[in-house]
Amino acid sequence: MPKAKVLRNTGQGNHADPTMEDRIAAACQWVKENSKRTPTAAAAKFGVPYYTFRRRFLGLTKSRAAAHEPQRLLSENQEKVLIDWVKYWGEQGRGLTRDSLRAKVKDLCGKLPSK
Question: 70-89: per-residue pLDDT in tens?
């Protein structure tokens, strides 16, 4: 009899799959819609690790991005403003220096980024 196939850790973790967060959210919604659905069935149906799904569903952990949000220098909206500003200056044909970019970041968040 052949051995059962075991999924091994590749060292990349769940963050290597960009669709993992969406699948976990869909699995949570699927279980919340019907109380007869089990976390085991949801994890299998959506192809997510059971224990990761269970911890998220119970609210014990957050996603990697959500957990590190307070450590970010710029919020998502501030980052979009900075990207638009850089694109605008690129369309104008003007180059940016590291100092001008640091000054803009300071204007957006009030803190000077490290070098």
Answer: 888 888 899 999 999 999 99
